[in-house]
Amino acid sequence: MRFAGASFMAAGQGPVRRLLGALATRWRLRRCASVGPGAVARGYIWVHGRGSVHVGAGVVLDGSHHPIELHAVEKDSQLFIGDGALVSGGVSIESVVSVHLGARSRLGGFSRVMDNNFHPLVGDRLVRPPSSPVRIGDDVEIGPRAILLAGSQVGSGATVGPATVISRRSPVPDGASASGMPVVIA
Amino acid sequence: MTPGARQTFPSPGERLLRAIGILRARWLFRHCRCGPRVHTRTRVRVDARGLVELGARVQFWEGMIPQELVCAEGAELIVGAYSLLNYGVSLRASRSIRIGQRCMFGALAQVYDSDRDRTAPVIIGDDVWVAHGAIVGPGVTIGEGSVVGAGSVVTEDVPAWSLAVGNPAKCTPLKRER
Question: Strand locations in chain A, DSSP E?
Fold first, then answer.
């Protein structure tokens, strides 16, 4: 199943525009390890790091207003975006071990997902702490400016409200909705 | 803990990039008072009508959104040596913002010292880590070594060596190592 966004992105365009769009998408996602069929990338997608970034079928990466960062830091880090997911502008996903974004999930603008907090709270702040993988289920809706810190788990069908911070201490079960700061899970 | 004291042996390419970053910073911050080896690889929006002072080896990291330094006329914006500013950081001073040494600012963090109701100086101590997307409002003093959690909104003073999390931020003491 393709996410509805993909069709609206391609709507009203002739075959030439569509072909050019497909070529542009391929160019913008050239540093990804794999790109599924029907994926759409607009604007600037900043794919960097030594690891592998996998983009599923029909994924929409809308960087037309603000760039999107997909960062697989280490050589064996995995960043996986499931089929039909929608990633809005300004989103930054950073993976040191593994970040898995489920199928048909939606990430709101300027939200951030990372599996490592990059600096410890105490001690030498320039030493990177151990990372813990982030797993986001299918059909998840994540609001704009939400922050998913290291080790956060979001179950399938869950909703994360705008500007909510999820950490390893606050896993979101299937179908739940999390919002507020500090987070309240209902 | 001092980043400058860390021994690194960069490759020739990396040295060249650093040199370009330092030259670029000299050009960008030509209206500011800069210490040695201020470094930026990206464009930074600088509006320095007041006194902007950047300490030695302040680094502006590259990213998706440019950093922003705004300093009104007669105001001061002081960033201590060895501080690191990630992309999208916005420092807006209309009277006074003083940031200590070795501070770290996560992406999209904001510090400003005036809103509709009041204008009051912001003082951030040494070794403070302001994490991703945090907002520090007017009149706030953050003690040395403290951490402002991701996405937090700080409206009241934070004591030294504590963790401020939430909106509005609540403080809990950090365990000090050693």
Answer: 34-35, 40-48, 52-55, 60-72, 78-81, 86-87, 92-95, 98-101, 106-107, 112-114, 134-136, 141-142, 147-148, 153-154, 159-160, 165-166, 177-179, 184-185
